[in-house]
Every structure is written in C-alpha cells, then in structure tokens.
Design goal:
The complex is a heterodimer. Chain A contains 5 helices and 2 strands, in the order H-H-H-H-E-E-H. Chain A is mainly alpha-helical. A two-stranded antiparallel sheet of chain A has the order 1-2. Chain B is 26% helix and 24% strand. In chain B, a hairpin with a 6-residue loop joins strand 8 and strand 9. Classes of the chains: A mainly alpha, B alpha/beta.
Chain lengths: 130, 516
C-alpha cells in the first residue's frame, strides 16, 4: 500500500477542499483493524469535515440514500462485502475500494457533486460523513 | 518582384496567367508553388510590407450575435496577412475531421507533407507516443477508450510575409502588387467566367487585372465580402445562386478555464497536455473524443489541454519569432529553444516580484485547469453578410453574426465528464467541472474565439450545398477558385493554418494542370 499522504487543496473559485479519498495513494487514511460498518467505512475518509460538504450534496441529490444504514449497506454491497463478513485489514479494504472506484469510473457509474465528478462509491463514502 | 501599385499609371492594366487576391498563408503558398514554368503570376496584396492604419481600416465591420473581436483587430492587412500574429499551432486533419469533405485524408496526405516544410516544422510525426518522455506521457487510454490523445506541433511561427519575402522577390514570373485592393470582379453576362478584376489604391490609382485563372485567397470573411460586392450580374453576389456565400461561418470557440483537475504533483500525464519543449521541438498534447464516442453522443470534435493552476508566471507568454537571417545561422534545435525560452526568461526579468512570489509560495501541488475548444457543427445561420456602410474604396462592409449551438455548454461539460472518467479509471486524479450553478464560476463568460474564419464558401460537389466544388472552383464559374479556410465544410478542433497550406498546394496542382 502506498504511503498515505495529506493532500490539501486550497480554494479555487470558493470550493472547499476535496477530502482525502480520491485514490488510495492520495490519502485513504484509516485506523487499523476496521470492520466494514458505517462507522468503519467513515474511517476511510481522512478529512470527514470536508467530505461532509460533498456528502450533504450527495444526500440531497439522492434522498433515497439519505440514511447511514442505507449508505453503508449499498457500499458494502458494491464492494462485495457482507455485513459482519470476513474482516479486512485497512490495506485490504482500501484496495477493494480503490478497485471498485476505478471500475465505476470505467463503467460510467459516476455522480457530480459540487462540480466534482466522483465514482458512486466515493460519493457515498462522503455522504456517510454527513 | 514587388511593385507598389500606387506608383503605377492611372488605369493600369496587369496581364497574367493567374491572379491571386490576398497574400496570406494561402496566397503566398499558391504564388510560390505556381511560379516558374513560364507562368505569369500576379499576387495582389491590399497592404504593404508593414502595418498601416489606413489600410487596416478597410477591415472594419460590424459584429452582432456572439461576442467577437472587432474585425479590424482580428485580422491583419499587410504582406503575410494574419500569419503576422499566428501562434503557430499545427496539426493535420485526420479521417474523421474530413468525413464531411468531398475527399479523404489520402488525397491531402502528400500535400500535408509539403505543408510541413512551408510551416517550418521539423518532424512529420503527430503520434503522441513519439513525444512521450519520462516527465510527460499521455494518459494510458487503451483500445476502445472513449478518449484519445493527440499532439500539436508548433511552427516557429512562420510569418509568411517575412519568411518568404525573398522567395517572392526572386520567384520567376511572379509579381506581388502591394497596396492593390480588389474592388470589383467583372464577369460575362452569364456570370460563368471572370473577365477581369478592378483594382484600386487608397491614393486614388485604379487599374485592372486580366488573367486566365483567378483565385480569391483573402480570408474567410473577406472572400465573402468580395463575392457579395460583385453583384453587377448576379444580383445576390457572385457564386451566390443558392444563398450560400457567407453562410456556415465558424470559428473555434475557446474556453480557457473549463475545469479543475487535482492529481499528483508533477504528474507526467498532466504535463503531456501542456506546451513543452521536446528534443528541440515545441509540442502540446491534447485530449479528444474517439470517433465512436463522437458519433454515439453527437459531440463535436474537441480538444482539451491542461495547464498548471494558480500562479502561472508563463500564462500568456507566447513563443517569439526569430528574424529569418538569425534563424538560418542556428540549428533547428537551438532556434526552437531560443524562441521558446527567451520570452519566458524576459518575462521573469520583467516581473521579478511575481517570480519570487511563485518561488516562495507554491500553489498546492497537483492542481491544474483545463482549456477547451471545439469545432461546432456547421450552422447556416451563423454567417457573414453585407451592410450598407462602405469603406474608403466604396466597398460595402460586412456584418458578422457568429452563432454557437445551444448544446455548446452541455457538450463541453460532457467532454469533461468523459475526461473525469478516464482520470478516475486510471487513478491519475479527479476533475471538477466549473459552472456557476455548482462552483460559482461561469467559464462561458470568458469564452473567446480562435480567430479562425472558416466555412463561408464551403466545399461540396453539389452547388445546392456548396459554393466551391471539390477542386475549390466556384460552381458555375470556370476560371474562379477560392483558397483558404472559407472552403472548409467542417472545422475539426484546431488551428486551420496547416490545412490551409495543404489545400493551397493541392489547388496549385490543379491550376498547373488547367494552365498546361
């Protein structure tokens, strides 16, 4: 796993910084031994404060997903993880998320949030922070 | 040789085999290629060797519709024409760019090879991987990807009036008439043959040209003006039997800050799509859509470039043009290095505080913005017409009504969405599409134009759909042809100069056959 890096984006046109969840080597930061519950998935986001802005916007666009339980269920499902299933360590979870995110971009499963074009799963991870 | 038409006797008469009107990229290329072989070539240029304000005023006109640079500032009316402020970007149109043309890329290929030399390019390759380095490489887009990479090469840039002045002076059988303005095209009663041109100078001298073949090479707006003013026989204007002259005007709309990208600092993928020096050549990568995606999504041909964001000290610094005498003393590599780096170093010396500020405070690494331009689909209502105001020579002036398609912003955003997908799929970065609704910045408010005047005497084998045929001859007029980007039936996404030169060389080949 590539080293986690803090990535700070200074404001451009008034937008808030993009949280550290673009790519595994751009800063997925999480504690060790996380289980894929909602709280755990939030651990993948290094800057939840900034993610919250995007997450709030995502929830407004997709009101059916405006619940932590729904979001975490959808994320686990898209990652192929059952609830309470096999535990992944941090590296493993980030690798799974990274692969899923790239696949979603490739398949066009994207959303626009505050102008940012994000993969569905990463947008949902932001929404978990709201 | 050069002759100042103002010094000719009143009611002068010029006889030639070919008369070319306009000494810009097309006209000079034609004249150089046609000269020799016992042919008499007359090249008429409205201006002189250098800029003159009174002559420049002859370019005045009106702009309505989409905002546009005033017409007497957008073009230059002296020897070399608008190449006197050309940026130098070159690319060959490919098969999809020529899909709506009456011939394909194979037809133009040999003329593009010749055009390389005319535009003073050193390499024949536009293959992205040929311009890849460790520090700059194209996105790994792969087979079947929705996007593809391309490369522009930069001419020094060639100022045609300066670079080829000696050639024009020495070319056998060629006379360049300076300060000579075409004011009327005379035809027979059926308007099926040009019988002569009326020429006037600002000092009151007037005369006539008689030739076997005539070529209008005055630019995409001026060619229209000359044809529409020639209404003595065809009342709607010469060659305008089907109301097509002046229609389908198109430029390349350019949006300098269309999206933001965050990626790794010194990302080699981002560096590829900015202007840079590679092995002594100035090149710039760009991203465009695959042919399949363009067809499927009805997107126009577009080109996206990438620039570092924030304090870009080199923003707006162009490459300089070396005097030919100096350039000839240097190797191509050395000359290109000088033209690229010298203006940037001068800029640093002139703005030391800005330079120090950039050194002391680095914009967060890995932040870029995109620049977008495209070649919209032809629109017959985007057009050049005449107004009643006349210039100092009595010629009616033009009105430009440039129209962009209603889908322009949607197409631009979709292009960036496709790029965002590829950036995410390859793990290079993320992209934010700028819009007033989401980011508070409206990129459309900074929309500009490429200063490319195209399509107004478009090419089509059917006179109901085009002004000129596939050989660039005006339908129904056996001895009148048109050179330049006014004949383009579609526009690609980039600078037309190299294609203008290639088409001029092709026209020259046709004319040589016709003249025998």
């Amino acid at each position: 796993m590539r080293k986690t890096r803090r990535f700070v984006l200074s404001c451009l046109a008034g937008a808030s910084g993009l949280p550290l969840m673009l790519h595994s080597d751009l800063g997925f930061g999480a504690g060790d031994g996380c289980e894929p519950s909602a709280a755990t998935l939030r651990c993948l986001v290094e800057d939840p404060r900034r993610a919250r802005v995007l997450g709030h916007s995502y929830r407004a666009q997709f009101p059916d997903e405006d619940h932590a339980g729904v979001l975490s269920g959808l994320i686990r499902s898209s990652l192929g993880l059952g609830s309470g299933g096999a535990l992944l360590n941090r590296a493993g979870l980030l690798a799974v998320v990274d692969a899923r995110v790239r696949a979603e971009f490739g398949a066009g499963d994207i959303v626009r949030v505050h102008g940012w074009v994000l993969a569905r799963t990463e947008a949902r991870l932001c929404a978990l922070c709201d | 040789m050069f002759v100042d038409a103002r010094t000719l006797p009143q009611k002068f008469v010029i006889d030639a085999d070919v008369c070319i009107v306009g000494a810009g990229a097309a006209g000079i290329t034609l004249a150089r290629d046609l000269s020799g072989g016992n042919r008499r070539i007359a090249l008429l240029e409205s201006g002189n060797f250098d800029f003159d304000a009174d002559t420049q005023k002859l370019y005045a006109g009106e702009v309505v519709g989409q905002a546009y640079t005033p017409l007497d500032r957008d073009r230059l009316r002296y020897l070399g024409g608008t190449t006197n402020h050309w940026e130098g970007s070159c690319r060959e149109f490919d098969a999809s760019d020529l899909a709506d043309w009456p011939f394909g890329v194979d037809e133009l290929a040999p003329f593009y090879r010749l055009a390389h030399d005319v535009c003073q390019l050193s390499s024949h390759s536009f293959e992205p991987l040929d311009w890849s380095t460790d520090e700059a490489r194209p996105l790994a887009l792969g087979q079947g990807a929705s996007l593809k990479s391309g490369v522009f090469q930069y001419s020094p840039p060639t100022r045609f009036g300066t670079a080829y002045r000696n050639d024009l002076a020495a070319a056998p059988g060629l006379t360049v008439y300076l300060n000579a303005n075409l004011v009327q095209i005379d035809t027979n009663d059926a308007a099926s043959s040009v019988t002569g041109l009326e020429v006037a100078c600002l000092n009151g001298k007037r005369g006539r040209v008689r030739a076997r073949q005539y070529v209008l090479a005055a630019g995409g707006i001026e060619n229209v003006r000359l044809l529409l003013n020639a209404d003595r026989v065809q009342k709607t204007g010469l060659g305008n039997g089907y109301d097509l002259v002046g229609r389908y005007f198109m430029d390349h709309p350019f949006v300098p800050f269309s999206a933001t990208i965050v990626a790794h600092a010194a990302s080699p993928e981002m560096a590829f799509y900015n202007q840079r020096m590679v092995r002594g050549h100035i090149v710039e990568g760009y991203i465009s859509a695959s042919d399949e995606v363009m067809r499927k999504e009805h997107l126009p041909p577009f080109a996206i470039g990438v620039r570092p964001a924030g304090l870009d000290i080199d923003a707006g610094v162009g490459n300089m043009t070396l005097p030919p005498a100096l350039r000839h003393l240097m190797s191509e590599n050395a000359a290109n290095h000088l033209t690229y780096y010298l203006p940037r170093w001068i800029n640093r010396l002139e703005t030391p505080i800005t330079w120090m500020q950039q050194k002391m405070w680095r914009n967060p690494p890995g932040v870029y913005h995109t620049a977008y331009n495209c070649g919209p689909y032809p629109d017959p209502d985007s057009r050049v017409t005449l107004i009643d105001t006349v210039d100092a020579l009595g010629l009616r002036e033009v009105r430009l009504d440039w129209r962009l398609p209603a889908s322009f912003e949607r197409d631009m955003q979709r292009a960036h969405e496709l790029l965002a997908q590829e950036l995410g799929r390859t793990g290079v970065g993320r992209l934010r599409i700028e819009s007033s609704a989401t980011t508070g910045y409206d990129p459309i408010k900074d929309l500009g134009e490429g200063h490319h005047h195209m399509g107004t005497t478009r090419m089509h084998n059917d006179p109901h759909h085009g002004v000129v045929d596939a050989d660039c001859r005006v339908h129904g007029i056996g001895n009148l042809s048109i050179a330049g980007s006014s004949v383009f039936p579609s526009y690609a996404c980039d600078d037309p100069t190299m294609t203008i030169v290639a088409l001029a060389l092709r026209l020259s080949s046709h004319l040589k056959s016709t003249l025998g």
